[in-house]
Amino acid sequence: MSIRDEVRARLTGPGGIFEMVEEEVLGEQQPVFKNRARSLRDVLAASAAHGEKEYIVDAGRRLTYADLQPTVASVAVALRESYDIQSGDRVAILAANCAEWAIAFWATVSLGGVVASLNGWWTRDEIEYGVSDSAPKLLIGDRKRLARLDGVELGVRVLEIESEFAGLEGHAVGASLPDVEIAEDDRAVILYTSGTTGRPKGAVATHRGIIGFVQGANANGLANAMAEFEERGEVFPLGAPRPQMVVLATSPMFHLSGLYAQIVLQLAGGGKLVTHPGRFDPESVLKLMEAEGVSQFTAMGAMGPRIAHHPGLLEFDLSCVTSVGFGGAPASPAVQELMRKAFPNASNSVGIGYGSSETVSVPATFGGADYQAHPEATGRICMGHEVEIRDDEGKVLPQGQQGEIFVRSAWNMLEYWRKPEATAETIGPGRWLATGDVGRIEEGGLLYINSRARDLILRNAENIYPVEIEYRIDKHPKVRESAVYGIEHEEWGQAVKAVVVPEPGASLDTTELGAWVGETLAAFKVPTAWEIRGEPLPRNPSGKVLKNVLMGQAANAFVEE
């Protein structure tokens, strides 16, 4: 048994800090942490022990743990008394990162309600769809995003954060948290993710799933750290006091990484979240890091390279940054080294994780020397997870062979919200989840992602499905047909390219096409590369467009993908 395996066995065995046992979850026997909170409200209640430590620093507001619980309790009472939010009701949140986002989340789940997390970058059309799909009793939004809905009748009550949220916080001063019964497998969050049908699907996470994300992150992080110490012949200082983790909230709170890894994970560990107002700007971010003593920075998309290449980088004291992570997409070895040089005190603790809205928790992660030794991997299989690589017929493939990644854990999503057919296509017998991602497993449980979902584009860690863009382009009166796919981009990882065939005799202007797409889709989905094609798109005998031919990966239209 390797040192890493021995450490894991010690932590998860009988009497271990993260002891694991088998229990029935949604009809299946699965490993779970024996000692765990049973609801997110319990996690919130326990956080009061962090006292006067700051939880969120947001645009001058400093909210401590001592103030958080009574604030959330007041908002929860207001939601129940003024908006009739009951167990199972949805509350949609549409806002930039702010303290109110987190407070509204904790208040809703404490009532047994469900947070419908709406993408803050959506256009009017996309927001209308999200509200219609989640059917909330209340939409909480900031002024800028609600302005996109001017003149739209949503059929739902709306609360503007800037002018009305303070009233909720002062509604019931001195109130206690709600005491409504919450089961572990009750719905807690609907997290929207792009879908192959052309519209986002709502991945439903339970209280159990999100708590599993937190415990899994802590357990695997501790196991990795202990293993590195012991491999060097050193003793890990288990139980030694550690300074408060200060996290720069670079990820949107409507994302898995912003909601589960920032709002929930940091609260559970007594960390501090520091929000950055407005668009990402390297210089203002560097100033904020230095001023607040940020210790953890997640370099989403192009953020890392933009920080590292900033001409004034050395003018800032970044010695406080001791941990750098990647998420949303694999980071190239070159970008990894760039981060180690930009943040020298974090050079030994750069890490990465692999997960999705559907897996809820993180099935694979690693960091430090292990990541440096295997820079193209995306992590080792995490405790409590089973991962299989399967071929197109569902047969499990041996180590080293490439296929679709399947994940099984007690923390996988419950379902796609109100989409039973899509749920059945994704969650199979035994509650094995088909991720749609392609990869392989190597010796030691190392997971490699060879490509993200056959058609999925990853631009700055944003998931983009081409079909949604193709549908929009094809609606243009001068367009005969189109195909959209991802191309390599130095900063973004991938950019969106559209190949368009015009109607006979029509002349297409790409600027006009870009504006057309941007009318109904978010800016990050608008193609930045265009090709006007004078002949029909290549198709196979069944009529499917062969994008491998368009990308130059196959010689003719009859080569199988």
Please give a structural write-up.
- This protein is α/β, with parallel strands linked by helices.
- The protein contains 17 helices and 27 strands.
- The protein has a seven-stranded mixed β-sheet with strand order 8-7-5-6-9-10-20, with helices on both faces. A five-stranded mixed β-sheet has the order 13-14-15-16-17, sandwiched between helices. A four-stranded mixed β-sheet has the order 4-3-12-11, sandwiched between helices.
- Strand 14, helix 12 and strand 15 form a beta-alpha-beta unit.
- The two termini are 40 Å apart.
- The C terminus is likely disordered.
Residue stretches low in confidence (pLDDT < 50, at least 5 long) are 556-561
Helix content: 25-40%
E-strand count: 27
Distance between the termini: 40 Å
By helix and strand content, what is the structural category? alpha/beta
Stated plainly, the CATH topology of the domain at 67-205 is called Rossmann fold
Count of helix runs: 17
Numbering strands along the chain, what is their spatial order in the largest sheet?
A: 8-7-5-6-9-10-20
Could you tell me the strand content as a percent range?
Answer: 15-25%
Please describe the biggest sheet, giving its number of strands, its sense, and whether it closes into a barrel: 7 strands, mixed
Mean pLDDT: 92
Shape: globular
Based on the coordinates given, report the CATH architecture of the domain at 67-205. Answer: 3-Layer(aba) Sandwich
- The radius of gyration computed from the alpha-carbon positions, rounded to a whole number of angstroms, is 24 Å
What's the CATH first level of the domain at 67-205? Alpha Beta
